[in-house]
Design brief:
It is a single chain. The protein is an alpha/beta fold and about 575 residues long. It folds into 2 domains: about 20-80 and about 385-420; about 90-365 and about 535-560, Spore Coat Polysaccharide Biosynthesis Protein SpsA, Chain A. It contains 19 helices and 18 strands. Helix 8 (about 235-245) crosses helix 16 (about 425-430) and helix 12 (about 320-340) packs across helix 13. The radius of gyration is 25 Å and the shape is globular. The two termini are about 30 Å apart.
């Protein structure tokens, strides 16, 4: 069985023909350069002493925009390096000889003259049964000899039955220590493959996943090969916004990190070299963002990472406000943990200069999500207290010119990547500041947030998760009424009023989304029911349902082994 692979850089012309990245890269680089110039010009405008306004709003704007501009410039620098192609002669030669040329050898894989033993892990923690079955079916059907393992921390007998029926090995461990990372480490004490792939329960792999990734390991210093996260459930505002927010990262930023040996693991759709993970003591378990921490530790040990932009697995983006909030809280917590407890610029870190910069960008990225909080408060300061961030001598048109040079070019760049302007992304980027502020506070205070599966949502009202956003919407709406009354009385429309009205509309769109979601929650027959809560733990069981031909079965160390 073969398949057609699609790159994250593949575009389609007016005739329906695919256009590869090499055909559009020159235009993209031009847009990136212009956007970089716009970023620099806007920052110089903000720093101009003649443009400074009142101290409080000016300081708020300067802090927020400095973080945003710094991230934008570093991202542009990485994006401009995204033309690097990790596939060399050694890769293509290894791929050519990976599968046997004679039918008698079946589907065994050969690399550097030796037969490979590959394990495929599907991590499960209470996801919908149909979702799990779809992923396990695809994992078992992967081309190339391998063993598929279902690592069920949800302790579901239904999942156990699916694994047995589909021909996968099933593992249920004694405790949930270490969350997903602990689940994988436990499986590594049982499975003995030289390489192992990891898929979340909602990511369905392409049949050629192993064929496209394993040849990279012909280089002995490659620790892992990462592929993108792509999503197929873009039917809600939240899922579309969450997916499009990651488009630039997976299409360009991760590719650019290849040049600096700084592409990091994202937890799924990835293949690891077993010996590399053994060297660092297993998958990192002291953080909910075990993927980034594991990659960071491997890079500190001198291992190499590879990222390819071909879509080799398709999964589910968070569909609800609850799922999105928990996902972003987990990711942001991991980033802030690196920043505050493992600063990449510390002389104790054994990283190259480029790697230090890339991991610093990763660690500080979610600060950009807190910046909207500061910017949302700037218009009310002028409306209520007549405090302005810019000097009265700066005209609206001058400010708009520099402002558009930064933000408009970012929108153009995003349009180039996604293919259109996505208001869902703008909305989520504006309203997510309470999530990131909470993540920062949790790291500062050492609070443990617990582990949550991205796709597993309950029937709780979405308003339970967006109280700050609702309060902000009410505040901004009342402020807009005051601003309009003031402008009508003065006979002129001010920039502060227009700015505040825009923010009110964005926050309002999010609140409307929450109302629609709540309506669907109250009438669940109109949508697919969410995954159910996991059942209480039963006795741990390891089931061997499909031993791999031509290889001896591993010694099973888990308690309560059955066949």
């Amino acid at each position: 069985m073969t398949s057609t692979l699609h790159s994250n850089l593949t575009r389609v012309d007016g005739r329906g023909n695919t256009i590869r990245a090499s055909e559009t890269s020159a235009l993209f680089i031009l847009v990136s350069v212009i956007a970089t110039i716009g970023v620099a010009a806007y920052m110089l405008f903000l720093l101009n002493p003649d443009a400074r306004g009142d101290l409080l709003p000016y300081s708020m704007v300067l802090v927020a925009e400095t973080i945003l501009v710094g991230q934008a410039l570093l991202s542009m620098w990485t994006i401009l390096a995204s033309g690097y192609e990790p596939r060399g002669f050694a890769y293509h030669e290894a791929k050519r000889t990976l599968l046997p040329s004679t039918p008698s050898r079946g589907d065994e894989m050969m690399l550097a003259g030796r037969t490979l033993l590959v394990d495929v892990f599907v991590t499960v923690y209470g996801e919908d049964i149909a979702t799990v079955e779809r992923t396990v079916t695809a994992a078992v059907a992967l081309r190339g000899a391998h063993r598929t393992w279902v690592l069920d921390d949800g302790r579901s007998d239904d999942v156990k039955e699916i694994a047995a029926r589909l021909g996968a090995w099933y593992v249920r461990r004694l405790s949930g220590n270490g969350a997903k990372a602990g689940n994988i480490n436990h499986a590594l004490s049982i499975a003995k493959g030289e390489f192992f792939a990891v898929f979340d329960a909602d990511f369905v792999p392409d049949p050629d996943f192993l064929i496209e990734t394993i040849p990279f390991f012909v280089e002995e210093n490659v620790a892992f090969v990462q592929t993108p996260q792509a999503y197929g459930n873009l039917h809600t505002v939240i899922s579309r916004g969450a997916a499009y927010m990651q488009s630039v990262f997976y299409r360009f930023v991760q590719r650019g990190r290849n040049r600096f040996n700084a592409a990091f693991c994202v937890g799924t759709n990835v293949v690891f070299r077993r010996s590399a993970i053994d060297e660092i003591g297993g998958i990192h378990t002291d953080s909910k963002s075990e993927d980034v921490w594991t990659a960071l530790t491997l890079h500190e040990r001198g291992w190499k990472s590879v990222y390819i932009a071909d879509i080799l697995a398709v999964g589910d983006a968070p569909e609800t406000i609850e799922a999105y909030s928990k996902q972003q809280l987990r990711w942001a917590t991991g980033g802030f943990e690196i920043l505050l407890s493992h600063n990449p610029f510390s002389p104790r870190r054994k990283l190259t200069g480029d790697q230090r910069i890339q991991y610093f960008v990763t660690a500080t990225f979610y600060l950009t999500g807190i910046c909207p909080l500061l910017l949302l408060l700037v218009p009310p300061l002028e409306i209520y207290f007549d405090l302005r961030p810019m000097n009265l001598g700066v005209t609206v048109w001058t400010w708009a010119l520099f402002y558009c040079g930064f933000y408009l070019m970012q929108i153009v760049l995003a349009w180039f990547v996604v293919g259109s302007f996505r208001w869902e992304t703008l909305t989520l980027a504006t309203v997510s500041f309470p999530i990131y502020a909470k993540a920062l506070w949790n790291v500062l205070t050492g609070k443990d947030t617990g582990w949550h599966v991205t796709g597993a949502a309950s029937r709780r009202s979405p308003f339970e998760f967006i109280v700050p956003q609702v309060l902000f919407f009410v505040f901004l709406a009342l402020t807009s009424v005051v601003a309009i009354y003031r402008d009508v009385h003065n006979g002129t429309l001010t920039l502060a009023t227009a700015w505040n009205l825009t923010n009110t509309v964005i926050m309002g769109a999010f609140v409307v989304t929450a109302f629609r979601e709540q309506h669907l929650t109250r009438y669940p027959d109109r949508r697919t029911l969410p995954a159910q809560e996991t059942e209480p733990m039963t006795n741990p069981v390891t089931i061997v349902a499909r031993p791999l031909p031509r290889h001896p079965e591993p010694v099973l160390l888990a308690q309560g082994v059955t066949k």
